[in-house]
Amino acid sequence: MSRFSASRNIILTVFMISTFAIGMTEYVVTGLLTQFAEDLHVNVSTTGLLLSVYAISVAIFGPLLRIATIRLPSKPLLLGLMGLFIISNIIAATAPNFQVLVLSRLLSAVMHAPFFGLCMSIAFTLSTPEKGTRAIAAVQGGLTIAIMLGVPFGSYLGGIFDWRYVFWFVALLGFISLIGLILVVPNQKVGVTPNLRSELKIFKNRNVLLVLAIIVFGFSGVFTAYTFTEPMLTQIAGFNVTNITIGLFVFGVGAVIGTFASGKIPPHLLTERLMMVLIGLAAVLALFTFLIPFKFVAFVMCFLFGAGTFGTTPILNAKIILAGKEAPSLSGTIAASIFNLANSIGATLSTVFLNVGASFTLITLIASGMILFGLVLTFVTHKVEDKSLFAPQNS
After folding, report:
1. Taking all residues of the chain, what is their mean pLDDT, rounded to a whole number?
2. Is 69 helix (H, G, I), strand (E, B) or coil?
3. Which of 333, 363, 361, 324 is nearest to 346 (CA)?
4. What is the structure's pLDDT at 1?
5. Residue 179, number of CB atoms within 10 A of its CB
6. Are 241 and 230 in contact (CB under 8 A)?
7. What does UniProt give as the signal peptide span (predicted)?
8. What is the Cα–Cα distance from 71 to 336, expressed in whole angstroms?
9. Do 1-193 and 195-394 share a fold?
10. Residues in Cβ contact with 235 at an 8 Å cutoff, skipping those fewer than 6 apart
11. Is the pTM of the predicted complex or chain greater than 0.85?
12. Domain limits of the chain?
């Protein structure tokens, strides 16, 4: 155990590199939708499926795969999942048509939730109680750094050269991550074999179910707006490739700042801080399309959008893991899966709205309303949840 504890920072760094690669694969498509549409001969609205299919696949297949592999040691499972990730991105880079590209997204999605769940659980276990949320934020930080650097870089790389280079680059990152996992993650044997029946009791845990409801019915509003950020910046703000790259980068800067700021919140203040973040995020989404025609203000709105979006995720992840004590093996996977279910709901809704003729302004207003509903659910949660789960002496 001492060896494992001594290498905590190195392990967290490798986890961040890995989640950076996975996060880039998940989100980089938002900066390439126009290119997919032109090269693969589909409508821009149809390319939204690349996000919704990924997200719903994470939500459905992620928990199933984790349940099927719950008795496996963590290191071999992490390596197998990363191998699948590398293969999926090679398929994406060589996809001859849109259908194969969608298939590659499904393969990437299958490994997403179990991988994030394992990383968050290991990071949380490695940490003292007061640093548990920060450790989760560190794992999440790889994804948000991907939003800051990977997505705009991918958008620029695809815009200047070809979108296929983006997936080759991600496959290379996956290979580097695989080497890192082989070198630094201890090959520990499973101590106490997880009891699946006991862990599934998490779905009867009122405190966990309340958080899941906030994510599904509230946080889903984020992706209702985020899915078509690149077309909004193109059509409403009039941005070219360079300005879109800057806009996505600024969004990512906000995401990183929001993630690590939330990681410093003590457990007993998580719900109160969540309400504050949701209020700000709802306001940003309501005003987004009205303000982005003004270039400088557009960058500010991108920053606030990123900060609000990813300022919520460490809070919600931490609440699920802290409240779901009966499911130490499943709670992290469930958290990652439910976020992607919300992402799928949001991406699907925005695609449907756009196909029936809704404007981008209407879509962002609907997204803001969904966030406000999540705020109401958070207020209810604050009133009825078991606060002893988050109290300093028990965290």
Report:
1. 85
2. coil
3. 363
4. 38
5. 12
6. no
7. none
8. 19
9. yes
10. 360
11. no
12. 1-193, 195-394
pLDDT category at 128 given cuts 50, 70, 90 is low
pLDDT in tens, 360-391: 999 999 999 999 999 999 999 999 888 888 77
Res 191 pLDDT > 70: no
Q: Decide: 321 and 332 in contact? Cβ < 8 Å.
A: yes
Identify residue 378 by its one-letter amino acid code: T
Q: pLDDT tens for residues 294-341?
A: 989 999 999 999 999 988 988 998 898 888 887 777 777 888 788 878
Q: Which CATH superfamily is domain 195-394 in?
A: MFS general substrate transporter like domains (1.20.1250.20)
Q: Which CATH number, 3.30.505.10, 3.90.226.10, 1.20.1250.20, 3.90.170.10, labels domain 1-193? A: 1.20.1250.20
Which residues touch 154 (CB under 8 Å, ≥6 apart)?
24, 28, 31, 32, 166, 169, 170
